[in-house]
Design brief:
The protein is extended, with a radius of gyration of 22 Å. By secondary structure, it is mainly α. Helices cover 65% and strands 7% of the residues. The protein folds into 2 domains: 73 residues, Orthogonal Bundle (Arc Repressor Mutant, subunit A), CATH 1.10.10.10; 89 residues. Strands 1-2 form a two-stranded antiparallel ribbon. The chain has 7 helices and 2 strands; from the N terminus they run H-H-E-E-H-H-H-H-H. Helix 6 runs antiparallel to helix 7.
Amino acid sequence: MHGYELRKRLNLMLGWGRVLSYGSLYPALKKMLRAQWIEERTVKNPGAVVSRRPRIVYQLTETGDTEFGRLMSEVGPTAWEDDNFDIRFAFFGRTDMEIRLRVLEGRRTRLQERLDRVQSQLALTQKEMDQYASELQRHGVESVEREVRWLSDLINAERSQQKPPVEPQT
C-alpha cells in the first residue's frame, strides 16, 4: 500500500481513540525500510495528471514478516501497556492462543492494579475536589472497570476454545 492508504487503514483498524499521523507513519516506514522489513516500489498513478509524481508503495518482506511474528510472540509488560496493547490486539488473529491469553491476562492485571490504586486515592481526595474533578475521576474509574470486564470476557472466551490436554494412554 502507499502511505496514505496505509494510514487510512491503520486508523480505521485502531479505532477512534488513536490516530496515526503522517509525522509518525513516515519515520516508522523509513526505519522499517532500513531494517529491510519492508520494501518500496514506485508505481505510476493511472489517470493522474501528467505532472503528478508516481506513488511509492510499501510491501512487507519475508524478513519483515518474520520480525512481525517475533514481535507478536513477545510477552511482557510492553505487550499490555497502554501504548502497545491496542496495536497488539488489532493483530491478535495472527497470534497463538497461549500468547493472546498471556497478553490479555497481563493487561487485566495491570489495569486492576491501576484501578485499586486510583480507588484508594479517590476515597482520600474526594472531599477536596470540586464536582467536575470528581466526575472526571469517576469517569476514569468506570472506564477502567469496563475494560477489566471486557478483558475478563475475552479471556473466558479464549479459554473456552482451548482443547483439554490429551492424557497419555497407559
